[in-house]
C-alpha cells in the first residue's frame, strides 16, 4: 500500500507540470492534445514492443477501452482550454472540483452507496470556484472548460478501476490513448471550427515541450497512476490529485510569474 501511495504522489507531481507545459506550448488546445496522445502512443508502443510487453486484446474490449480513452482526450482538451482561456492557476483550482464529481458519480456508475461526507468535502472546492467566477468574470470560458475537465478527471479512474482487473497498466494506457487519439482525430475538425487554431504544425520549441509532456508527464505518470489504482480506491486517488493544483500553482508562480498578474 505504501508503494502505491508513493507511485500516486510521483504521478501527481508529474501532473503538476502539465499545466505549465500547456502554457509553454502555443498550439491550440485540441491540437496540443492530439500531438500529445500521438507521441505518447508512439513512444509507449515502441517501448512495449521491444520489451515484449505488447499484448493483443479482442475488438469488443478495444472499443470499450477506446471509449475511456476518449474521456481522457476530452478531459485534456478542456483542461488546456481552461489554461489558455484563463490561466494555469484558474485551471488548477477548477481541477480541484474532481473530488466532488467523483463522490457524485462513482456511486451512480458503480452502484455504490452515496458517501455524503465525501460529497460535502467536494462542495468546498465548488464554492472556491464560484468565488473566482464572481471576482474574475473575464475567465468565464476558461472556468467552464475547467469544470468540464474536472468531470472527465473524475470519470476516468472510476471506469479504469474495472478495466484494471483484466489488463496491465501499460497495456491499458497504450490502448486507451491510442483509441482516444483515433476518436479525437474524428471530432477535431469540428472542434477547430468552433475554436480555430492560428497554426497546425508544432514549432521546434513546441515539439521539445511535447516530448517532455508525452514521455514524462503522460507515459510514465499514467503507468504509475494505474499501478496505484490497483491498490487504492478511485476516490482516494482523486483526493490525492487535489495536490496537483498546489504543485501546479507553485510552479506557475515560479516559472510564469502568475502571482504578479
Largest sheet, strands/sense/barrel? none
Shape: globular
The total domain count is 1
What is the helix tally?
11
Distance, first to last CA: 41 Å
| Class from helix and strand fractions | mainly alpha
Unreliable segments of 5+ consecutive residues: none
Task: Walk me through the structure.
With 261 residues, the protein is mainly alpha-helical. 80% of the residues lie in helices and 0% in strands. The chain has helices at residues 2-24, 29-50, 59-85, 88-95, 98-110, 116-135, 140-163, 169-194, 204-229, 234-240, 243-256. α3 (59-85) packs antiparallel against α7 (140-163). The chain is globular.
Give the topology, please.
Blueprint: H1 2-24, H2 29-50, H3 59-85, H4 88-95, H5 98-110, H6 116-135, H7 140-163, H8 169-194, H9 204-229, H10 234-240, H11 243-256
Helix pairs in contact: 1-9, 1-11, 2-3, 2-8, 2-9, 3-4, 3-7, 3-8, 4-7, 4-11, 5-6, 5-7, 5-10, 7-10
Looking at this protein, list some descriptive labels:
single chain, 261 residues, 11 helices, globular
Concise synopsis of the structure shown:
With 261 residues, the protein is an all-alpha fold.
Amino acid at each position: 500500500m505504501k508503494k502505491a501511495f508513493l507511485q500516486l504522489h510521483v504521478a501527481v507531481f508529474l501532473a503538476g507540470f502539465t499545466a505549465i507545459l500547456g502554457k509553454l506550448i502555443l498550439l491550440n488546445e485540441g491540437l496540443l492534445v492530439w500531438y500529445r496522445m500521438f507521441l505518447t502512443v508512439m513512444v509507449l508502443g515502441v517501448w512495449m514492443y521491444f520489451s515484449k510487453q505488447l499484448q493483443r486484446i479482442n475488438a469488443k474490449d478495444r472499443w470499450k477501452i477506446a471509449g475511456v480513452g476518449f474521456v481522457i482526450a476530452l478531459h485534456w482538451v478542456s483542461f488546456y482550454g481552461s489554461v489558455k482561456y484563463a490561466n494555469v492557476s484558474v485551471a488548477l483550482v477548477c481541477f480541484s472540483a474532481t473530488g466532488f464529481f467523483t463522490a457524485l458519480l462513482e456511486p451512480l456508475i458503480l452502484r455504490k452507496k452515496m458517501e455524503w461526507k465525501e460529497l460535502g468535502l467536494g462542495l468546498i472546492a465548488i464554492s472556491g470556484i464560484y468565488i473566482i467566477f464572481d471576482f474574475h468574470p473575464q475567465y468565464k470560458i476558461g472556468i467552464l472548460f475547467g469544470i468540464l475537465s474536472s468531470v472527465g478527471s473524475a470519470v476516468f479512474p472510476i471506469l479504469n478501476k474495472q478495466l484494471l482487473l483484466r489488463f496491465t497498466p501499460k497495456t491499458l494506457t497504450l490502448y486507451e490513448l491510442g483509441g482516444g487519439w483515433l476518436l479525437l482525430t474524428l471530432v477535431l475538425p469540428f472542434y477547430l471550427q468552433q475554436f480555430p487554431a492560428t497554426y497546425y504544425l508544432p514549432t521546434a520549441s513546441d515539439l521539445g515541450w511535447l516530448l517532455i509532456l508525452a514521455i514524462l508527464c503522460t507515459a510514465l505518470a499514467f503507468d504509475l497512476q494505474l499501478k496505484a489504482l490497483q491498490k487504492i480506491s478511485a476516490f482516494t486517488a482523486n483526493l490525492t490529485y487535489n495536490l496537483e493544483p498546489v504543485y501546479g500553482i507553485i510552479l506557475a508562480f515560479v516559472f510564469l510569474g502568475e502571482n504578479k498578474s
